[in-house]
Write a structure and sequence with these properties.
The chain has three domains: about 5-185, Beta-Lactamase; about 185-280, no CATH class; about 290-440, 2-Layer Sandwich (Heat Shock Protein 90). The strands form three sheets. A seven-stranded antiparallel beta sheet has the order 1-5-6-7-2-3-4, sandwiched between helices. α1 (about 10-35) packs antiparallel against α2 (about 40-55), α1 (about 10-35) packs parallel to α5 (about 160-230) and α5 (about 160-230) packs antiparallel against α6 (about 240-280). The chain has ten helices and 14 strands. By secondary structure, the protein is of the alpha+beta class.
Length: about 450
């Protein structure tokens, strides 16, 4: 068996030497604690000290990702091993890391080439060959597995019991760092949850008068125009040209106020709903999408109505293009509204005055998804375009906002909506010409209801 159990360290001289090495290693990491506050920097330093202490040439910290249900390479040394970052392994017996993660026991691999579980392709990915290795489990305070730390290729001799004792302390430190970071995040989350509760309550209090005023204005306008029409109709003492002038003077207001009131009420309700969704999301309560057959033209029209004034202020034309007949699609109305809204709203400030942002809706009813049987939503702008490095990272975990103070949250919202609908999204962009975002959503969904 290449996987070995280390012998004990029984020589007094070796024991003293081992204790000194342990003290030196802990001292080095303690010094890092005083100069670094980010957990990633501390973990990286812990890995570096581990390699230096046991005389190893390379190493990695591989953590379990609960969402992906995978072991993921998070920290690697030396620096030319960076190609491994993000590499995923199954948390099972298919690899040495997975086996140690599952068993929770240290493992010395004196000659990895003799072990069936050794993943030679991992080293080959970056041009490195692994000869020998120690894999140490990382556990939470409750003993739950959270990952593994591996050190590879001892410079002199083979890994032994003293190396395992050293790595046991260092891996415990790494696990403690991760656990403390988790507890700190939970503490922050508790504060945020409470704060969001207060914010949600405050927003409700602030929005309620807006809704009340909008409803009151609607009644007042309705009554005013009813009285005006009654006053002008059939009055012989009012010349017809004077009545016509009055009607022309109020025509714009008469046409505009119903839409304005509707926008105020819809916007107020959406603000409250969105804050509630954010609060639930922070608490870990993620609302599942409700798929119903919807008229996507109506959803798109509401987005354009809400953003037309935003576009006018920026000197940008905002428009909707859709065929007279567009087949209904199984979508979550709120989520799709948010996705289209974010795509159009993000495009407006990227489009110079005089340009346009157009939401185009179409459908392919034949064939198979994603090329066929799909609803197509395109948001086309005549903007500045974007660099290839920005375009390539859109809708990934590495996406960043190009706007000052931006968070990239809009693109994440869009990607989440597309994913929840089982759709696809892509973007093409040409500098100084513009960008096109294309979303494809399936026209059929077995579980979709009808409305």
């Amino acid at each position: 068996m290449a996987a070995e159990t280390p012998e004990t360290v029984d020589s007094p001289e070796k024991r003293v030497e081992l204790l000194q090495r342990q003290i030196d290693a802990v001292h080095s990491i303690a010094a890092a604690f005083s100069s670094k506050i980010e957990v990633d920097a501390l973990l990286h330093e812990t890995l570096r000290v581990s390699l230096e202490t046991v005389g190893a040439g390379a190493g990695s910290i591989i953590l379990y990702d609960r969402e992906k249900k995978k072991l993921v390479f998070r920290h690697v040394l030396p620096e030319d091993s960076a190609g491994l970052l993000g590499l995923e392994l199954e948390p099972d017996e298919s690899s040495i890391a997975g086996a140690v993660f599952s068993s929770g026991e240290f493992r010395i691999s004196a000659d990895v080439t003799k072990e069936k579980q050794h993943r030679s392709d991992v080293g080959e990915k970056i041009g490195h060959i692994t000869h020998n290795m120690v894999t140490a489990p990382l556990k939470s305070r409750e003993g739950a597995p959270i990952g593994v730390m591996q050190v590879l290729n001892k410079h002199e001799g083979m890994f032994g019991a003293e190396d395992c004792e050293l790595l046991e302390i260092l891996s415990a430190l790494a696990a403690t760092l991760l656990e403390n970071a988790r507890l700190a995040e939970e503490a922050k989350l508790a504060v945020v949850v409470n704060l969001l509760g207060d914010i949600s309550h405050d927003i409700k209090n602030m929005v309620t008068p807006v809704q009340t005023c909008a409803q009151t204005l609607e009644m007042m306008f309705d009554e005013t125009f009813t009285d005006l029409d009654a006053a002008l109709q059939g009055r012989e003492d009012v010349p017809s040209d004077a009545a016509e002038n009055v009607n022309q003077a109020v025509e714009m207001l008469r046409d505009f106020y119903p839409d304005a009131i509707e926008m105020l009420l819809d916007g107020s309700a959406q603000v409250q709903d969105r804050v509630r969704e954010i609060a639930d999301c922070v608490k870990g309560i993620v609302a599942q999408p409700t798929f119903e057959m919807q008229d996507v033209r109506t959803i798109g029209a509401k987005v354009i109505q809400a953003l037309t004034l935003v576009g006018e202020k920026a000197g940008v034309t905002v428009a909707l293009e859709a065929p007279e007949y567009l087949p209904p699609a199984p979508v979550d109305q709120k989520q799709l509204y948010n996705a289209i809204y974010n795509l159009v709203n993000n495009a407006i400030p990227e489009t110079p005055a005089g340009g346009s942002v157009t939401a185009k809706l179409s459908a392919v009813q034949d064939g198979e998804f994603p090329e066929g049987r799909c609803l197509i939503i395109e948001v086309v702008d005549t903007g500045r375009g974007m660099p290839e490095e920005v375009r390539a990272k859109l809708f990934t975990d590495d996406a960043v906002s190009t706007k000052p103070g931006g968070t990239g949250l809009g693109t994440r919202i869009v990607k989440n909506v597309v994913d929840s609908h089982g759709g696809t999204i892509r973007v093409t962009s040409v500098k100084s010409v513009g960008s096109t975002f294309t979303v494809r959503l399936p026209l059929e969904r077995p579980e979709a209801g009808t409305s």
